[in-house]
Amino acid sequence: MPNPLVNPTHDPELRSWVGSANDRATDFPIQNLPFGRFRAAEGDRTGVAIGELIVDLTGASAAGLFAGAAAEAAKAGAQGLDQLARLGLPAASALRFALSTMLVDGSRHRTGIEPFLREQRGTDMLLPMPVRHFTDMCVSTFHIGRRRGTDSNGQPLCPPAMRHIPVGYDGRPGSVVVSGSPVRRPWGTWQHPEGEGEPQFGPEPRLDYELEIGIWLAGTGKDGGSTTTIGEASEAIFGYGLLNDWSARGIQFFETMLGPFLGKSIATTVSPWIVTSEAVAPFRIPAFVRPPCDPPVPVHLDDADDRHAGGLAIALEAAIESAAMREAGLPPHRVCATDFRHMYWTPAQMIAHHASNGCVVAAGDLIGTGTCSGPDPAEAACLLERNFGGPWQLPGGETRGWLEDGDRVLLRGRLERPGYVPIGLGTAEGLIEPALQVFG
Amino acid sequence: MPNPLVNPTHDPELRSWVGSANDRATDFPIQNLPFGRFRAAEGDRTGVAIGELIVDLTGASAAGLFAGAAAEAAKAGAQGLDQLARLGLPAASALRFALSTMLVDGSRHRTGIEPFLREQRGTDMLLPMPVRHFTDMCVSTFHIGRRRGTDSNGQPLCPPAMRHIPVGYDGRPGSVVVSGSPVRRPWGTWQHPEGEGEPQFGPEPRLDYELEIGIWLAGTGKDGGSTTTIGEASEAIFGYGLLNDWSARGIQFFETMLGPFLGKSIATTVSPWIVTSEAVAPFRIPAFVRPPCDPPVPVHLDDADDRHAGGLAIALEAAIESAAMREAGLPPHRVCATDFRHMYWTPAQMIAHHASNGCVVAAGDLIGTGTCSGPDPAEAACLLERNFGGPWQLPGGETRGWLEDGDRVLLRGRLERPGYVPIGLGTAEGLIEPALQVFG
């Protein structure tokens, strides 16, 4: 059966008159068309990535290049991506179709839109939209089970709730920053890793990254107390990006009585481009196959025909480049290669559960999926898990446990499937800066 | 030594030409002058409570009644209390002084401001300001220790971190609503109280209130990574209000792997008036006296002379009015009488700790202190603690464990000290509505 979510904008035969968009290695072929915000001399603007270029959507909209539903969507998007996301998926889809038509090889709109193209290189990207709420979930049993071993069924040992519901917590919206923002090592209260000795207040010794997917929501939500079905939850996903949930492990473990707090609010880095729900449609896969010993899917998250709650295959990797490697001209070193397919719950299930208590989730909400670890040790998507195997090496001979000052962490995501043109999520990166000398 | 924070606006001899402000029972004498927002035919406006009336600050500001720093503060405040709070405490203080001068008995400004007065009764109050961040802390050892008993030193048994740092977690800003907003019983996943049987998805059976103080922050915060001293933290408090952190205990306990989430995001009710830092100055008390067996105050929260980190005495109470009581004409029944003085950490310590990892805390931040329970059983500030003593009775003969549909919960707070005119925080109330019939 053909994928009902695939349409002519996904056609693998489409090529763009923007040459760099036709390179198989690009994250941004004409089949992707992600949205982002950038800084320009004229003020902050909305853009669409195509190959190595950006379409200035704010400019193109003001010039009257769009018509009908696409014009309305472009006008909203020009003001801010939260405005576009509020309109819902049909609006974003109309705009995507118009952009595809304008950027395709031989388009009669080329001369109209060409003046609104600029280079990505050298352009300052901004947070894609204001983050009103940031929720972080934890839906990889492999992430939680890595250090706990397996149960009698050979499944990762996890708190039972993880297999009944997508577990999550509220994060701090103001801590979300765009890729490229520096990450300063925080001060905080922490204890020796073995829990020995008095807690001390000092610069965090166990700084970590967490490779996650960020889900940007669409729509205006439903009135408090109303149901959000799996189908509605699926319609509430504006798009996806990379998310690095930087974690100060010493602080996190000491303060954890009510969940993560200052161990997480140091910074959360997101990639600048939102790859839309529509763009990822070809890469949908069935939901994670639950082992027979696991509890049944609860009623509010059940989607018998898997039409809405489907999973997503995204090849993910994290790489580290130390200051010494940078100086020696060595490229970033891959420390993790994993896939989003390992998540126990699907994005639609996460959203339906989030809204199940009447909580209004809407455009402006960003949901982190939690560390996207898979079963294999090479799929450990943070250092907490990797360090479980003891100290490890970077090229050039450095030994590592946790992140050091000067380390740059880079996350990447790529969606590929035979018969389709691969697309990518771009990059989320951040450089660790030393702690300020502020106390004692 | 006289309290250096007390000034002529606190003078107990001051009386207002607004008669109801001179009643000893009012929460809003001329010594209080709290800020709030209300709905008017002309649009949303900022107001100041005086007795049973409201000064329309937006109108008075537009009419040019203020001069100098007070005019600047009034203009910002007229747009939104977050704008006034951003300016910091000196601005709010200048405005308070001007208002005091205008409302005092015999003021030559009376004819100017009198046209901008309206009745509180019948006026729809709004959320005092947009909540950008909501943090909930947990700083009463009595709250956590109630069900755990005492340690070998006779102190409440708590996780050790509670005595090293003010423990907190991020809440959901969008869940904060103003007093009077209905609270719908949520659906969710919960287990039998004894943890027996399969978890089920249904309307929450263990709905609870939590009596807390809400701290509204001022200023623009400090750059990421910078120190916030106790003194600076003290200057970052715009004011105080009541806060009911409604809690769905079944949901909360089942999902708690990463802290409270859907068990809390149903609603958090705040009182409509922000009672300023300056207004509460006469009611400051020394910080909580730590038992000698407790760990020393950490360096970043230490305030040797207790000049900034001082505590605050606020007499607090919670009352419940059931549907049957309402029908029978019975008044709300007090279920808790406690005091803010029992908090282990002071507001300034909470803020200094919150900012210690470089997190920027600023106007738009609301911090809940956590349930304000004291040592006595009558000071149990939520039903979870109260139920520990078994079922209890409401007037009219109803037996209660948890909140029932139709229950109205009212919180009140009052500050009194010999030699000063008492002031109050007003009321935070909410009525429990039945769960929607949405699943199964």
List keywords for this structure.
homodimer; 440 residues; alpha+beta; 5-stranded antiparallel beta sheet; 12 helices
Mind explaining what this structure looks like?
2 copies of one chain form a homodimer. With 440 residues, chain A is an alpha+beta fold. In chain A, 19% of the residues lie in helices and 26% in strands. In chain A, the strands form 7 sheets. In chain A, strands 6, 7, 8, 13, 14, 16, 17 and 22 form an 8-stranded mixed sheet that branches. In chain A, strands 4-3-2-1-5 form a 5-stranded antiparallel sheet. Chain A is globular. Chains A and B meet through strand 6, strand 7, strand 10 and helix 8 of A and strand 6, strand 7, strand 10 and helix 8 of B.
Summarize the structure in short.
The first copy, chain A, has about 450 residues and is an alpha+beta fold.
Q: Most extensive chain contact?
A: A-B, 63 and 63 residues
- How much is the radius of gyration of chain A in Å? 22 Å
Shape of chain A: globular
Given as residue ranges, the uncertain stretches of chain A (5+ residues, pLDDT < 50) are none
Strand content of chain A: 25-35%
Largest sheet of chain A: 8 strands, mixed
Query: Can you count the helices of chain A?
Result: 12
Record field, number of beta strands of chain A: 26
| Quaternary class | homodimer
Mean pLDDT of chain A: 95
Please estimate the helix content of chain A. Answer: 10-25%
End-to-end CA span of chain A: 67 Å
Structural classification of chain A = alpha+beta
Question: What's the topology here?
Answer:
Two copies of one chain form a homodimer.
Chain A: E1 35-40, E2 43-50, E3 53-56, H1 57-62, H2 68-79, H3 81-87, H4 89-103, H5 110-113, E4 117-119, E5 125-126, E6 133-138, H6 141-145, E7 167-171, E8 176-178, E9 183-184, E10 187-190, E11 200-203, E12 207-208, E13 211-217, H7 230-235, E14 237-244, E15 247-248, H8 249-255, E16 268-270, E17 275-276, H9 277-280, E18 284-285, E19 311-312, E20 315-321, H10 323-327, E21 333-339, H11 347-354, E22 365-368, H12 383-386, E23 392-393, E24 399-400, E25 408-415, E26 423-433
Parallel strand pairs in A: 6-22, 8-16, 9-26
Antiparallel strand pairs in A: 1-2, 1-5, 2-3, 3-4, 6-7, 10-11, 12-15, 13-14, 13-22, 14-16, 14-17, 18-19, 20-21, 20-25, 23-24, 25-26
Helix pairs in contact in A: 2-3, 2-4
